[in-house]
Specification:
Layout: E1 4-5, H1 18-44, H2 49-56, H3 59-77, H4 81-88, H5 90-109, H6 114-129, H7 132-142, H8 145-176, H9 181-184, H10 187-199, E2 203-204, H11 214-237, H12 242-264, H13 278-307, H14 313-318, H15 321-341, H16 344-359, H17 370-398, H18 405-425, H19 427-431, H20 437-461
Antiparallel strand pairs: 1-2
């Protein structure tokens, strides 16, 4: 994999000079901001969905597609981003991703129809796919040792927090300005990041012999797209309709062809040998359950609180604030404890705690009370999330040699996005066609089952790394 360094400070440890420490902080801010916009936009849209469907029409189907059009291209193309960065340079790819994301955001904000918005969301996801791996590569090439672990921990906490604060920011904009501003807000951090890149003096290292598996990327994208289309449209058309089973079968065949291709292609975008490592494949199975549940719960709660409980978009966004606070307060501390005791305990207890929090949503009734019916769930789920995120990331990345941490992170990010993609595609089936109180309760049960499955998977599958005598 290629590296990105400042030629004046290449690979020097942080303790050598204060100047290097300043450069590292600069790099970390660039990495955080670039990734933050991609993750933020993945969730900021949730609270805007009722307003979007009210203005552009389409009901729950439009809401599903607005979310999944983004996740399809993000999840599929994030795998090929590492190869593109090697071939063309990480800083160049990061700039292109930022500009593309900004242009797509402007197009979404100006969307005249639901169809136009959905297509623009797909382009936005494609641009976002190139932000996350390039951002992490900036960290791995400019930090070493314990400083790198700490930087990755900060990056993980900040990008995960973006997924939680998105509904709050979106709610304020929907209520006081317009849902369209929920997408325009991206332009500010994008502009700041581009200026920091221009002033940072970074120089790309490119690999001229790098190979990009565009065929694999296409197979993955269209394979996921076909299956997701069938899952979203099935409640309206039924499984017997050729418009459902044809794209479902074709999508499955294309995705299978993608996996088979990764076994033979010279430069795979999904290195299947990574899954021979126990903590890597187990961690990604747990990721599938946990992030599928997070995506489902994040969308259902903010939409139901508006459409079912009658809250404003701002109040619906504020509902998840306790989760954000708990993440900020405890994520880094839990990461340190996980490094000392190993990730297995935290990856087991954290998701199960979130599952219990999801079950608390079953107390929501026709006589709605946020303080007694929703807040306890948010607190319990926030505690579970703080216990889970940093140990999950360290378990997966720590299982793979450092020189492959970039592709390992890209695979894990892709798994998380695809898990959310499938969960949202199944939304209408899960809630029974309408997000009423019964549908909300069904979603809470499914969320709990997925979370608990993630905890059980971690308990039986994750192994704590052996500790040296000095660490014992």
């Amino acid at each position: 994999m290629g590296t990105v360094t400042d030629e004046h400070h290449t690979q020097a440890p942080a303790s050598v000079t204060g100047r290097m420490a300043t450069t590292q902080r600069y790099v970390l801010w660039i990495a955080v901001l670039a990734s933050f916009v991609a993750f933020l936009d993945g969730t900021i849209v949730n609270v805007a969905l009722p307003a979007i469907s009210d203005e552009l029409g389409g009901g729950i189907t439009t809401q599903q597609w607005v979310v999944d059009a983004y996740l399809i291209t993000l999840g599929a193309l994030i795998l090929v981003a590492g190869s593109v960065s090697d071939a063309y340079g990480r800083v160049l790819v990061l700039r292109i991703g930022l500009i593309g994301f900004g242009v797509a955001s402007l197009a979404i904000a100006a969307a005249p129809t639901a169809e136009f918005l959905i297509v623009a969301r797909g382009f936005q996801g494609a641009a976002g796919a190139f932000l996350v791996p390039s951002s992490l590569a900036l960290i791995t090439s400019n930090f070493t040792g314990s400083a790198q672990s700490r930087a990755i921990g900060i990056w993980t906490a900040m990008t995960t927090s973006a997924m939680i604060v998105g509904p709050l920011i979106g709610g304020i904009l929907v209520d006081f300005v317009s849902w369209r501003w929920a997408f325009l807000i991206n332009v500010v951090p994008i502009g700041v990041t581009l200026m920091m890149l221009a002033r940072g003096g970074f120089h790309d290292t490119r690999h001229p012999d790098s190979s990009i598996d565009w065929i694999g990327a296409a197979l993955c994208t269209f394979g996921l797209g076909g299956m997701v289309y069938a899952l979203i449209e099935q409640p309206d058309r039924g499984w017997g309709s050729p418009a459902i089973w044809v794209p479902l079968v074709l999508g499955a065949v294309l995705f299978l062809a993608f996996v088979l291709r990764q076994r033979t292609v010279r430069h795979p975008i999904l290195p299947l040998d990574l899954f021979r490592v126990r903590n890597f494949w187990t961690g990604n199975v747990a990721t599938t359950f946990i992030y599928g549940a997070l995506a489902l719960n994040g969308l259902v709660v903010v939409v139901y609180l508006q459409e079912g409980a009658g809250l404003s978009a701002t109040l619906a966004g504020l509902a998840s604030l306790p989760m954000t606070i708990l993440m900020i307060l405890f994520s880094s501390r839990v990461g340190a404890l996980s490094g000392r005791w190993g990730p297995r305990f935290f990856m087991t207890v954290g998701p199960i705690t979130m599952g219990i929090g999801a079950l608390l949503l079953l107390t929501v009734g026709t006589d709605f009370s946020y303080w007694w019916q929703v807040l306890p769930s948010m607190i319990v789920m926030g505690a579970g999330l703080a216990l889970t995120v940093a140990p999950l990331t360290s378990a997966i990345l720590g299982a793979i040699e450092p020189e492959r941490s970039g592709i390992a992170s890209a695979v894990n990010n892709a798994v998380a996005r695809v898990a959310g993609l499938i969960a949202i595609a199944l939304l209408a089936t899960i809630v029974g066609g309408a997000l009423d109180l019964d549908g909300f309760h069904r979603s809470a049960i499914v969320t709990a089952v997925l979370m608990i499955a993630g905890g059980i998977t971690s308990f039986f599958g994750i192994r704590n790394p052996e500790r040296s005598p000095d660490e014992a």
